[in-house]
Amino acid sequence: MGQLSARVILAGLIAMASLAGCAVNDPGTPREAGSSGPDAVDRPAAAAADRQVAFRIRRDSQLGLNDDGGWAAAVNQPAVVTADQPFRIRFEVEAGDSSEPRRFALQFRRNDGVWQSLEAADFPLPQNLEERRPGASDRDFERDWIILDGSIEDLQRVPEGQTKALRILTQDGSFRAWAATDFDWTPNEFALEFRLPNEGHGRFGLVFEQIGADAYSVIELERSGRARVIRVDGIQRRILAETVVDLPAGEWNELSLELDGPQWTAELHDEVRLQWQAAQRMIAQPRLGIDVAPDGQVDIMTLVIEGEASTPRASIISSTSFENGSATDDLLSQSGLPFAGGSGLSLRSRTPAWSARRGHGEWSVPIVIRRFADQAAMNEAGDRFEFRLIDDLGRPLPATNTASVLLSVPDGHLGGTFVETPMRLGPWQTGTGDLYFIIEPSETWNRMMMLRSSDFGRTWREVDGARRPATGDLEGLASVYVGGRIHVVHQISEQVLYHAFDPGEGVGAWVVRDELIAEPAAPPTQVADLAVRSDGSVVAVYGAGDGLAYAIRSEEGRWSEGIAIPGPLGTVVSGPTVIPGRDDFVHLAYTASNGTAWARRIEPGRGLSDAVLIAETLATEEEDVGALLPLVTLDEGRTVVLIYRTQDGRLHERRSAGDDRWSPPVTVTDRVVVQSPVDSDQVGADAIAIGDAVHVAFIETETGTLFHTFSHGGQWSAPRSLVADANVQWVRGQPIATADGKAAYGIVYDAGSNGGSGLNRFLSIPAGSEPASARP
């Protein structure tokens, strides 16, 4: 870390250590001797209520749950943790007099701010949360269901192939129950696999909204083929929607419900059947239940509850070394009371029930603090985060010491999410030496952010966030820096947009946002690139249905109509890359789905030149459309260099003097280069020119290693490893100058987020090809 960051964190740790425990101990409480050892402290006598007596920060989150190692600090001492790098907190809790089952949740606060819930949200990819309840579960029914009407005797397991199904069979009375869950996130989608009997009463309901004490919503399904959505309030039943469906008895059926804003949608066998408005006065989060009529029967194979993913500042994540609920050992040994168990949490925001009385337990919680979160919230180096346990009623447990950490941000760390299917992104360097690069803050809040580094890549932060473009869905994006302005073209499904950022003499500002270029038919893959001519006009190329098109922005800011770029008959044309050459010719290359690559020119006053076949051994799957690296020019635009990936995974180059003649193919590397590593439909490689040399950074398929090679006059160097300790998945870069004025290849790469966030990093390679750190 930089010297300033180190001083800030050290000072913060000293202050935290001096204050530890000052505000939570009652000086009048009698104390008795606790356990012995170097970390032992005097413990208060057993209290009437539960209390947290110790914590410890584990830096190495991949160690086993009960391994005694990898700690970041001593017991009850604050620690330094790294942004976007998981760690664990182990809590020790003494039980009071009660033996009633209780569960603990967590809260956190940043820099003495408001305490807020510590949610479960995974890292680096914040996948939608899901809980499955298969009928074959061997768990106790009392743990699976909160029964309102009927009894456990109505539930049984029946063989179904290699597994078991859950059967609900009622007699004289009805059965109604909620699925008991162990999460605190809000579900928005439910799915159920069910079977109705061949005979007898075949009516049951899926309960999905609780509105009041005796008020709820239910979708009722009958073997006769009727489906009705009913809102129940006491004895009142109001039908919201109904239809006729085919529900063959004795066969498995699939039903799903999804809440999108204020509207529910029901699907049977993936076909929309019913839509209606959600209740406006719902007092509880959506949850799932079962309602079976008297003398009724239904079999359930799978019940799924899902919630939408999010990326908060800090969250509980899934563990790579233990399953949720795994039993803990007594590691902290601060309490003198008998050990009464505990567990590790994995992507859950509440502990399992604990019934200890006058004993102590331990809970281990994997946590990440992110550099960027939803809404583009940013955590800074030196931020202090505190964590505490709360009980079932939301009351904080008294704590001898509050668990505390200070955040560090490594040199060269950007965080955030890599823009999907990009062409050029930067980092673009201004005359002052500042670097600019476009990212998204998170996978779940994909808005465009312009990051700036004023120290040659060591630290990065967003600029002009208040006026960032409004359009999200950053799937096809490219930028160029020309004439003191960063021009950006951006394709979403059925729109192509233009933005512009002016670095100016200071931090810079967005000067054009969300300007419409075209509204073409949606392409299979969103792709775009652009070039700026000497007169300031902008040429944008983008996907248009199964083909490509281009439009030109005049100096006055008006876009022309889109002009189609024809490809081989019956193919999908995609993967465009453009670059300006001499005489304001814009060189264009693209791929076709028959495994070919083509080159053209967009010429001032004359439009498209004829297509020239460059290669015909490209791969032909949809994810192979982006088989071309960004075009490169040498000799002040006289020479055009095109590098492409063939079906065998190797990179090759061809060169042109700017006309229709191209040199024979030359192999860039014999290593197999990754294609579409995170569903990007794009080759994992980048190309730039520095002086008379072409530089390529590429990702090896088998290892995920980032390599670098360069060429003088067509002779490629042996590839050198740049990043070997990560599964690299994206890479983009540009020529830059270091603090001492030396030419370098400035690179931003994704160290393996799988499409998530938090692993974007910067490095620079001197033009002589030796790797360098992010420091000048």
Blueprint (SSEs and pairs):
Elements: H1 3-19, E1 31-32, E2 43-44, E3 51-58, E4 79-82, E5 87-94, E6 105-110, E7 116-117, E8 129-132, H2 141-144, E9 145-149, E10 155-160, E11 163-169, E12 175-179, E13 187-195, E14 203-212, E15 215-222, E16 226-233, E17 236-244, E18 252-260, E19 263-268, E20 271-277, E21 289-292, E22 297-307, E23 314-316, E24 339-344, E25 360-369, E26 384-390, E27 403-408, E28 428-429, E29 435-439, E30 449-453, E31 461-462, E32 476-482, E33 485-491, E34 496-502, E35 509-518, E36 528-532, E37 538-544, E38 547-553, E39 563-565, E40 573-580, E41 586-592, E42 596-603, E43 607-608, E44 612-615, E45 632-634, E46 639-645, E47 651-656, E48 666-669, E49 685-690, E50 693-699, E51 706-712, E52 715-716, E53 720-723, E54 730-737, E55 743-750, E56 760-766
Parallel strand pairs: 4-27, 24-25
Antiparallel strand pairs: 1-2, 3-5, 5-25, 6-7, 6-26, 8-22, 9-12, 10-11, 11-22, 12-21, 13-18, 13-22, 14-15, 14-21, 15-16, 16-17, 18-19, 19-20, 23-25, 26-27, 28-29, 29-30, 30-31, 32-33, 33-34, 34-35, 36-37, 37-38, 38-39, 40-41, 41-42, 42-43, 42-44, 45-46, 46-47, 47-48, 49-50, 50-51, 51-52, 51-53, ...
